[in-house]
Write a structure and sequence with these properties.
- By secondary structure, the protein is α/β, with parallel strands linked by helices.
- It has 3 domains: about 120 residues, 2-Layer Sandwich (Nucleotidyltransferase, domain 5), CATH 3.30.420; about 140 residues; about 140 residues, no CATH class.
- Helix content is about 60%, strand content about 10%.
- The protein is built from 19 helices and 7 strands.
- A hairpin with a 4-residue loop joins strand 2 and strand 3.
- The longest helix is centred in the middle third of the chain and has 36 residues.
Length: about 425
């Protein structure tokens, strides 16, 4: 009996249409088409796969699909069929494209063929889309949205601070007198009723007290009101009246953006907490020192709950950017920080390490030992994050909670002996 040729599928994704290419294991183009992201287009894709030998949802050898994005309606529909999906980095596709064309020509159909050929020749070096549960994927959506809102809040706060420095130092001083954070309800309420120094000079203590109550303040209102009233009336350098008024209008618009992002964070944080607490990994992840609900949800959202995704702790550490990169050539050997990584997980690692220093004697001893050995602050934090990730991988695999004496046995004993 003649052997059946293996077929791979490449999809060049675009906003309005998708180019499909099917290639057999000899590199011959079997079929091609251009579809829209619709029910009809998806049915056309399934029909193409079936004609090329795909055995359907319940088969043992579905045709693998390569595409340049891990998200979208088409990816979600393909994921539901159970087919292996390989999201390929566009930068990698560009390098593979040079393998087939030295002239630099490019077309959507040619890119689809390149994607199919990537799976034909190098499928084993690329990772398929992990088989995360629906709950884990929903947590990832909410956690990323909350993290994005946090970053937007920081950006809006920095823009507002930069503007206030140019015309309103009294407001910055008033914010610094309480917490220094422009995103607090108190500072936002105060700036809303006095967006310019001219408006601040007309504020009465009664209006300031009312703003404090609207911001949720319930204690020491008279004392705080008197402090703010004095700060806002102190003499400062001023812009011209019309320029000051224009800057006040700009500040109010930035304040509206900041307030919107603060509200978004509150709503998204509540949704993240509700979803994360329903997941079986919730108790294991939050058993680690320094991991609260939000950080734990971001961890789960990025690494997922498909335990076959990372074969060992080393691959997880490389994905998060905690493991260093070794470059060796001849007599040259350089070990450096990993730049290509999951930036969202790297951000979690920094806050995780910072919180763990105050809650874990082993983490504190590990960090101090790395600093003594000559590591800088960031390098010591990455090393601590690397250690925690190894523990996390083990705990998730074995379904155990974190134990300090297991994670840092020698350091905990040394710290206890030093304290005694």
């Amino acid at each position: 009996m003649e052997d059946i040729l293996k077929v791979t599928c490449g999809i060049d994704w675009a906003e309005k249409h998708h180019d499909i290419a099917l290639v057999d294991d000899n590199g011959t183009l079997v079929a091609k088409a251009r579809i829209t992201e619709s029910v009809e287009g998806f049915q056309t894709l399934l029909a193409m796969l079936a004609e090329a030998g795909d055995d359907g949802d319940d088969g043992d050898c579905p045709i693998p699909v390569a595409i340049e994005t891990p998200r979208g309606l088409l990816v979600a529909a393909l994921r539901a069929t159970g087919r292996p999906i390989y999201p390929i980095n566009p930068m990698a596709v560009a390098r593979y494209r040079e393998r087939y064309s030295a002239s630099g020509k490019k077309s959507d159909h040619a890119d689809a063929v390149v994607l199919a050929n990537i799976l034909r020749t190098d499928m084993q070096v690329h990772r398929p889309l992990p088989a995360d549960t629906e709950l884990a994927r929903s947590i990832a959506v909410l956690a990323r949205a909350c993290q994005d809102a946090t970053w937007r809040r920081t950006r809006a706060s920095n823009e507002l601070r930069s503007l206030l420095r140019e015309y309103y130092p009294a407001m910055l001083e008033a914010a610094a007198n309480r917490s220094g954070n422009l995103a607090t309800p108190l500072t936002r309420a105060l700036l809303e009723i006095a967006p310019t120094p001219a408006a601040a000079l007309t504020l009465s203590k009664t209006r300031i007290a009312a703003a404090l109550r609207r911001a949720g303040r319930s204690r020491n209102i008279d004392q705080v009101t008197a402090e703010l009233h004095t700060i806002l009336r102190q003499p400062h350098l001023r812009q011209d009246p019309l320029v000051e008024q224009a800057m006040g209008i700009q500040a109010l618009r930035l304040l509206a953006t900041l307030t919107t992002e603060c509200a978004s964070i509150d709503h998204l944080s509540a949704a993240v907490e509700t979803a994360f607490q329903q997941h079986p990994d919730y108790e294991i992840i939050t058993s680690f020192p320094g991991i609260a609900v939000q950080a734990g949800a971001r961890l789960l959202g990025e690494i997922g709950d498909d335990r076959t995704r990372f074969s060992d702790a080393r691959s997880l550490k490389a994905f998060t950017g905690a493991a260093p990169v070794t470059r060796a050539s001849g007599r040259s050997l350089v070990v450096s920080q990993r730049r290509i990584k999951n930036d969202r997980l790297a951000a979690v690692g920094f806050t995780w390490g910072l919180s763990a220093l105050n809650q874990s004697p082993g983490a504190r001893a590990h960090y101090d030992r790395r600093r003594t050995a000559g590591d800088g602050h960031a390098a010591a934090f990455r090393h601590l994050f690397n250690r925690f990730l190894g523990c996390l991988h083990h705990c998730l695999r074995t379904r155990q909670h974190y134990r300090e004496t297991t994670a840092f046995p020698k350091l905990v004993e040394a710290a206890a002996a030093a304290a005694a």
